[in-house]
Amino acid sequence: MAKILISLLGTGRQAKGDNEKNEYERTDYILDSQLYKQLTFTSNAIIKHYDINRVYYIGTNQSMWDNIADIFEADDDCTMELLESKENHKLKDSDLMKLNSFIDKKLKNNGSKCYVVEDGENEDELWRIFEKFLEILDEVDSKDELYFDITHLFRSVSVMSFIMAELAQIDKNIKIKGFFYGMLKKDEPSLIIDTSLFFELLQWSKAIEELENFASLKRLVELSNGRVDTNAYNSLEYLESAFDIANMSAIFNAVKTLNTQISHFKKGV
In terms of Cα–Cα distance, which of 21, 106, 102, 116 is closest to 69? Predict the structure, then answer.
């Protein structure tokens, strides 16, 4: 099992002059009440906090790849090559292979990769971004823990990240362990919030849809496991069994019992 982070990389403040780096202001980050001081990217804090084994950075041609090189202690040659490629607007995935090796070395694991995507300004570019995400998901196993960081790259890629995270859960049964956004603040530590709650809400909405359209309680039972009172959960399981065999008497009795236990579901969800 690997802990994997997919992180979006932005362009930062525009540098002035040749071979100067764009940059973000360093800030303190708070994640799960733990303070991480003077970091450039939210991914720095996430990698430290969860002991990430492998990271996939996704950015545009002008993203701050040179800053990532600094963080992962790449040599001067690597950093200068990245800066020159950025200035010429010719940065490609192949130009980032050397950076990949420095990330692997720092994380003491193999497999980290950096991907250059387009801005997503038309359908063709959106499909190419989608294909890059699919390449990443092909390297993720159902036993892995997957985290997303959408803080630094805006445009359509952030939306695409949400869609791909949902696809990972549906297609490969990968549970999203965290979907993070860093809220930059000036005079106090910046809070990194986990928005993976949205994925849970989607699951509950799907469960209700399946109940209404197909009289299926399977997903609702799965979501309720460990979240509600044991007696209420057992009653819901009994109702599922009654639905499966279309036993109207059993369904009536199960609904009658559940009606007295609805407060447990309100507390548990």
Answer: 102
